[in-house]
Specification:
Distance between the termini: 31 Å
Strand content: 5-15%
Largest sheet: 8 strands, parallel
Strand order of the largest sheet: 10-9-8-5-4-13-12-11
Number of strands: 13
Shape: globular
Order of helices and strands: HHHEEEEHEEEHEHHEHEHEHEHEH
């Protein structure tokens, strides 16, 4: 989720509070939750890898289409919390979950996976290891981004601080931030982290991450952009280098950039189609080592509403954004996944109530299904925390799956469950 302009008080800042809450994930309830028996590596490998071919994802010789979600916090939480959200995802019929695979820098409110350059703590990987194990048991697939564009859980700015000592300007013009893409020391450190994670052996499964088909895809980053180079060449060069690197490490898994779909068109008046973020989605998606294109949809935070632009409607704009990318993905010959989308209930930004949001989500998911999209993943599914209460709604996008009539997102969850059946062909 992004805002146009230079200020960005969005879910990224709110997730800092979520990270702090994550450190409480060692409650008695969590510790009392028994881990399931270790998988047999051969049995897990028999599930098969999702592949990309001729503009579609495939599994077992058949097209593979899915409805899914995001739950970024799997890499930091207790087994109890991981069980809760993944069980809910399976009950909804969701197929793919996207979760962070990074936590850079010590001294923060999260457990670092990389406390300093080249210093890795595999004991801190237990949450992600367990999530991979649990997802495999439930028949779910995971998508794992390797670094964050934003400073949550360290991100690119942590690498820039480590190697260059420069302050964070992720939400500004990005002059310091964008050194992440060009500094040789930073690039080498990122490559090493990617290799460490991809080759890490999961004690719960006995498999290295690169051997486990539960991990459907690795992503180069969450929402990368390069504002200091509007041409898009800097980001494209970095993505070309790193996609080849990660693909060699994990040749059987899919590889995506993880970008939002910005078109990079100079002079375009519409922010997401413009070159403001220094990203060219068509060129990034067309890279040889990239298997599918990713798209995020946040019209409210991009100023695509009637309040910001008279005559614009957030729902209709989002539908067009999706349809444009599906069309261009067909021209490129790559599958397209709408991997993040969300709306807040806000009458001033075209979504006055839950019913209006549900209509928008129905329009967007219908556009993916009817337009031949490979999949979509709403932001975000959450469930119970260690004391039995529900995960807080930090950013106004929370969706919960439970039978309590008081659940304010019950209709939304059922909508996504029905869409999952339709995408999988079971409806």
């Amino acid at each position: 989720m992004t805002l146009s302009g230079t200020t960005r008080p969005s879910r990224r800042t709110l997730l800092g509070a979520a990270a702090a809450a994550g450190l409480a994930a060692t409650s008695a309830a969590a510790l009392a939750t028994p881990a399931a028996a270790a998988d047999t590596p051969a049995r897990r490998a028999d599930r098969g890898f999702v592949t990309a071919r001729r503009g579609e994802l495939r599994l077992g010789g058949k097209p593979f289409r899915f409805a899914g979600t995001n739950c970024y916090y799997l890499h930091q939480q207790s087994h109890y919390m991981i069980d809760a959200v993944l069980n809910d995802a399976a009950a909804m019929g969701l197929g793919v979950i996207r979760a962070w695979a990074f936590a850079d820098g010590a001294g923060h409110s999260y457990r670092p996976l990389q406390s300093k350059p080249y210093a890795y703590d595999d004991t801190a990987l237990d949450s992600l290891d367990y999530a991979v194990h649990k997802a495999g048991q439930l028949g779910l697939r995971l998508v794992l981004p390797l670094v964050n564009n934003w400073p949550d859980y360290g991100g690119m700015q942590q690498y820039v601080q480590w190697f260059l000592g420069l302050p964070d300007d992720s939400y500004g013009d990005g002059t310091h931030h964008d050194r992440f893409y060009t500094d040789p020391g930073i690039r080498a450190c990122y490559r090493a982290w990617a290799e460490h994670l991809v080759r890490h052996r999961n004690p719960h499964t006995g498999l290295r991450y690169c051997e486990d088909p539960t991990i459907m895809a690795f992503e180069l980053a969450n929402e990368p952009r390069c504002r200091s180079d509007k041409s898009g060449r800097t980001l494209l060069a970095w993505a070309a280098e790193m996609s080849e690197h990660v693909k060699k490490l994990a040749p059987r898994q899919l590889l995506a950039v993880g970008d939002e779909g910005f078109y990079g068109e100079a002079g375009h008046a519409d922010y997401p189609y413009s070159d403001y973020e220094g990203a060219d989605w068509r060129k990034l998606t067309a890279l040889p080592a990239v298997d599918y294109g990713t798209v995020h949809v946040y019209p409210q935070n991009w100023g695509e509403t009637s309040g910001s632009k008279p005559g614009t409607d957030a729902t209709a704009w989002g539908t067009r954004w999706i349809e444009d990318h599906l069309r261009d993905g067909r021209a490129i010959g790559k599958p397209v996944v709408v991997e993040e989308f969300g709306l807040q209930i806000d009458a001033g930004r075209d979504i006055p109530d839950t019913a209006a949001r549900d209509r928008a989500y129905a329009a967007w998911t219908d556009a993916v299904r009817s337009g031949g999209g490979a999949g979509d993943q709403f932001w975000l599914l959450t469930s119970r925390v260690d004391d039995g209460s529900f995960y807080p709604d930090y950013d106004g996008h929370r969706v919960m799956w439970n039978n309590d009539p008081a659940n304010p997102t019950g209709t939304t969850a059922r909508l996504f469950a029905a869409h999952a059946r339709a995408m999988s062909g079971s409806d």
